[in-house]
Design brief:
There is one protein chain. By secondary structure, this protein is mainly alpha-helical. The longest helix has 29 residues. The chain contains eleven helices and no strands. Helix content is about 75%, strand content about 0%. The N and C termini lie far apart (about 60 Å). It is globular and about 55 Å long.
């Protein structure tokens, strides 16, 4: 009986950890701006997109290492991958795509922060409501209407549910079955929301970087 809650908790922790890894991008870029590293990049014959892509790619590498460590720890305490090989690989790809998308959100926040201290606060402040107003701990159907709607469409909710299903750790034990569109099309929504975040925040981050680098 212990394995099921351990499995669902581990799946949520993996998605939550990738969200919080975006704070590395926030602080890293803010630190680069404060130390004048961005000004040095201006003198190099390189695309301005390359600077941000290098930062987000390096954070993606950190995310891969984090996923490996957390997966091993989960296996040690009783978590089991009950899905088939294809589902497990797909789950990890969805997880890393979400991590990459969140790093671009972090890049934009880091570029608008005026100092490392502000970046540390701004990089974490928005994460807590997004993380905890989800159905990771409480069924969205049991929430008041405004919170329920937010939780149902929250990418954290859908990504956690997708991981649980693909890893073979069903989530809705003793909870009413969800009826929202994101829940019924969880994989499509998880991938689509991550792609949409990238499409929105890449231009925003690049535009902000050009403005900062031109000063």
């Amino acid at each position: 009986m212990l394995l099921r809650p351990v499995g669902t908790a581990t799946s949520f922790c993996l998605s939550g950890e990738e969200l919080f890894n975006s704070s590395f991008t926030v602080i890293g870029l803010a630190n680069d701006l404060q130390r004048g590293i961005v000004e040095r990049f201006r003198a190099l014959p390189m695309s301005r997109v390359a600077v941000l892509l290098g930062r987000t790619s390096s954070d993606l590498a950190v995310s891969v290492l984090t996923v490996v460590i957390m997966s091993v720890c989960g296996l040690l305490v009783g978590w089991r991958l009950r899905g088939d090989f294809t589902d497990v690989v797909l789950a990890y790809l969805v997880l890393l795509l979400f991590s990459f998308a969140m790093s671009w959100v972090g890049a934009f926040i880091g570029l608008i922060a005026r100092s490392v201290e502000v970046a540390q606060s701004a990089g974490l402040l928005w994460l807590f409501p997004v993380t905890f107003i989800s159905s990771a701990f409480v069924s969205a159907e049991a929430m008041p209407t405004p919170l329920r709607v937010f939780a149902q469409w929250n990418p954290i909710t859908v990504n956690a549910d997708v991981l649980r299903e693909l890893f073979g750790n069903p989530v809705r034990v003793g909870m009413p079955a969800p009826t929202s569109w994101p829940a019924e099309h969880a994989l499509l929504y998880a991938v689509g929301s991550s792609v949409l975040i990238v499409l929105v925040f890449v231009p925003l981050a690049v535009g902000r970087y050009r403005k900062v680098a031109s000063r």
